[in-house]
Structures are given as structure tokens and as C-alpha cells.
Specification:
Blueprint: E1 23-35, H1 38-43, E2 49-50, E3 58-69, H2 78-81, E4 82-94, E5 97-107, H3 110-119, E6 123-125, E7 127-130, E8 149-156, E9 159-171, E10 183-189, E11 202-227, E12 242-260
Parallel strand pairs: 5-6, 5-10
Antiparallel strand pairs: 1-3, 1-12, 2-4, 3-4, 4-5, 7-8, 8-9, 9-11, 10-11, 11-12
């Protein structure tokens, strides 16, 4: 008998890439609010989602330095539990509900990629870096406070695809307002059987379910963002026409479930 939540299944069930939920996450986020061409944003939406007429072309770029744990204390194995991620979230509507749609996301950890595919995040391999802040103040760390400056970059296949700079100004009085839109993804797993390549085994719109979401030490200021052309990528089609708030905050949540929106 072979056991495991994901491949590879094994006699003891310990070799699988991803253990079963619960999946716990904690991370530091650098985010930039931006506006792109409404037509470019709408072009990324799958059937079932429509542009939000109240926020045409509005999106958010997020760079996250994550730490993960499952049922045990996986954070005591930092080489497996730590990873970095870059994503873009586009404003959309599901029926009459304002949501965020994730057309592109990059990650530097194979287990995080597998968890993402299970949830519907279209993760690709990339390299993501961001400025870190440390409690011991000095010339090598910005302060999480007025004037603090945080940069972030993302690349894939050896090509730089995103650059961001956030300059903090003031704390966010209502951090919960940063989580008002649920995230919608598309779980898509194709078939390899000849003659069925256009008939995916799974193709369903889903809404992410984040248990016990929490945001702490949220600061806002100005944001700068560039989305750069790269071979084999379409991210640059969402290049900003203007930017809005720059944000830096810490967040945590748990994943045990998702909501299927369409069969």
C-alpha cells in the first residue's frame, strides 16, 4: 500500500511533496497598488469573471517572504518551510461580488508550487527578493516607519520581470481593509490522452478560503512598480499606467478548504 496526499506516494507516506492540510502561512509583504489598461486587465479574466466597473484596470502587485508549516512545526526545517513569492491580483467581479483574480504568480519552492496548483494559483518558478527589516537598527536595515524604504524584485528563467519600491509614510489605521476582496483562481489540470488535449480533467473556478487571517504592523506610503517584458511571459501587458499606495505589512492565515464556484 502506498500513502501520501500528493505524489510521490510511498510506503510510509512521508515522501509526498505536500502534506495534507492544514497549511499555515506567515509572511512579510511588500505591495504596490497600480492601474493598468482596463482592456489588458479584462483580457486575463476567465469565463465566470467580469471586469469591476467601479475599479477598471485596478490591480495589486505583491512580493512576499513566506514561512510555512503544516500540522507539525515545519518552520524548524527552514530550508523546506521558507520561500518567496511574487503575484499580481486584478480586480474583478464574480456575479455581483468584488473579487481579486490572480493571472500570474511566481515562486521559488517546489512544495509551494504544488500547493498553489492544488488551490488554483498558476504558479511558475521564479526568483523573488525583497528588502528585510531587522529589530537591531543599523545602516543595513530600514525602519518599519516613516521614511522606511523597501525594494523588491522578481525574475524567471534568468529574466527580470518586476521591480518595486515602497517608501513608508504612516501606519494603516484599519489593516482589515486590506483583505476585503476574496481571491478567485482557476484549477486547471489538462489531459494527455490523444484526442482529449482540449478536454481538461479539471477546469473549475474556485474561491480561496483563508482561515484566521491576520495583518499586523501595516504601513502605507508611496509605491513605484515596473513590469518588464520577458521572453515567454505576458506579465508586461499589465504594465502600470500609474501607481497608488505602497504597502508593507505582515500577514498570516491557514488553508484547509476552498469554495468551488463553477463545475
Amino acid at each position: 500500500m502506498l500513502y501520501g496526499y500528493t505524489l510521490p506516494l510511498s510506503p510510509q507516506g512521508q515522501a509526498n511533496l505536500v502534506p495534507p492540510p492544514p497549511w499555515h502561512y506567515a509572511g512579510d509583504v511588500i505591495a504596490v497598488e497600480f492601474w493598468t489598461s482596463p482592456e489588458a486587465a479584462a483580457a486575463t479574466l476567465p469565463p465566470g469573471l467580469s471586469p469591476d466597473p467601479d475599479t477598471p484596470g485596478h490591480a495589486t502587485a505583491m512580493f512576499i517572504d513566506w514561512q510555512f508549516s503544516s500540522a507539525g512545526q515545519d518552520y524548524l526545517d527552514p530550508v523546506r518551510s521558507q520561500y518567496r513569492e511574487f503575484m499580481v491580483l486584478v480586480d474583478a467581479l464574480w456575479q455581483d461580488t468584488p473579487v481579486s483574480w490572480c493571472p500570474y504568480i511566481y515562486v521559488d519552492n517546489d512544495a509551494a508550487m504544488a500547493r498553489g496548483w492544488i488551490q488554483g494559483f498558476p504558479k511558475k518558478l521564479g526568483a523573488v527578493h525583497q528588502t528585510r527589516a531587522f529589530a537591531a537598527q543599523g545602516q543595513a536595515t530600514p525602519q518599519v516607519g516613516p521614511g522606511g524604504r523597501f525594494a523588491a524584485t522578481a525574475s524567471t528563467a534568468g529574466q527580470r520581470i518586476a521591480e518595486a519600491l515602497v517608501t513608508l509614510d504612516q501606519p494603516v489605521p484599519d489593516a482589515a481593509a486590506l483583505l476585503t476582496r476574496p481571491t478567485v483562481n482557476l484549477r486547471h489540470f489538462p489531459r494527455l490522452v490523444a484526442g482529449q488535449h482540449d478536454q481538461p480533467a479539471v477546469h473549475e473556478l474556485v474561491m480561496a478560503v483563508f482561515d484566521n487571517p491576520r495583518i499586523d504592523n501595516a504601513w502605507a506610503g508611496t509605491g513605484e512598480l515596473s513590469l518588464l517584458p520577458a521572453r515567454g511571459e505576458e506579465l508586461a501587458a499589465l504594465a502600470p499606467t500609474r501607481t497608488g499606495l505602497g504597502l508593507r505589512f505582515s500577514m498570516s492565515y491557514t488553508v484547509t478548504d476552498l469554495r468551488i464556484l463553477t463545475p
